[in-house]
């Protein structure tokens, strides 16, 4: 038998959002119900970087590729969950080297970010030298349990090099219940086009 781990954030009006900015909170409202209609319907207003989401290069690179250019074949396959819950601050090359990561890997960074549902202004992030190490290895993608893969780097020295080297970025994962190891991963972004990101449902399948 196999086990399915839902590693995506639940979207509701109390979901944590980046820097707790009010304008980033989703708005979910009922537009009709059984008091005024024969069916119940709701609408949602959501930032495309809300909750678990896939970034596309346009997010940080002028005229960069948009979300529909990331094929589903790049978002389904084996992934390595690496336990970095002991790390404070930035995840660097020295933190990643012991895991023996390989070319083509999908790497999911499990940190203390997964242990709380409150936004932490000091969240653990991928430092510039950690990003460069993953680029040198030739990984396919990197996922983080922070709402940002970097924190307060003025020139976006994590995002931009990853994008420029065709490394896919997923943010906002929930990995609290997932042990370190290899899993079959499915990440399914909303089928949007022409923009820089899309909310996604993310699953890991293991024993």
From TrEMBL:
It holds the Pfam family Cyclase. SUPFAM superfamilies: Putative cyclase. It comes from the Bacteria. Gene3D superfamilies: Putative cyclase. InterPro entries: KFase/CYL, KFase_sf. This is Cyclase family protein. It comes from Paenibacillus arenosi.
């Amino acid at each position: 038998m196999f086990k399915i781990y839902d590693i995506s954030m639940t979207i509701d009006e109390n979901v944590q959002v980046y820097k707790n900015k009010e304008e980033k909170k989703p708005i979910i409202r009922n537009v009709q119900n059984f008091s005024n209609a024969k069916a119940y319907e709701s609408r949602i207003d959501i930032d495309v970087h809300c909750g678990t989401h896939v970034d596309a290069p346009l997010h940080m690179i002028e005229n960069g590729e948009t979300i529909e250019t990331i094929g589903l074949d790049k978002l389904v396959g084996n992934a390595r969950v690496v336990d970095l819950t002991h790390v404070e601050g930035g995840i660097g090359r020295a933190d990643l080297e012991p895991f023996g990561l390989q070319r083509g890997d999908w790497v999911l960074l499990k940190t203390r970010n997964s242990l709380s549902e409150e936004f932490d202004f000091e969240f653990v992030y991928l430092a510039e030298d950690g990003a460069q190490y993953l680029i040198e290895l030739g990984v396919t993608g990197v996922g983080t349990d922070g709402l940002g893969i970097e924190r307060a780097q003025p020139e976006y020295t994590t995002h931009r090099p990853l994008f420029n080297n065709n490394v896919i970025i997923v943010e906002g994962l929930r990995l609290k219940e997932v042990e370190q190891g290899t899993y079959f991963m499915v990440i399914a972004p909303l089928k949007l086009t022409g923009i820089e990101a899309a909310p996604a449902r993310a699953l890991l399948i293991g024993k």
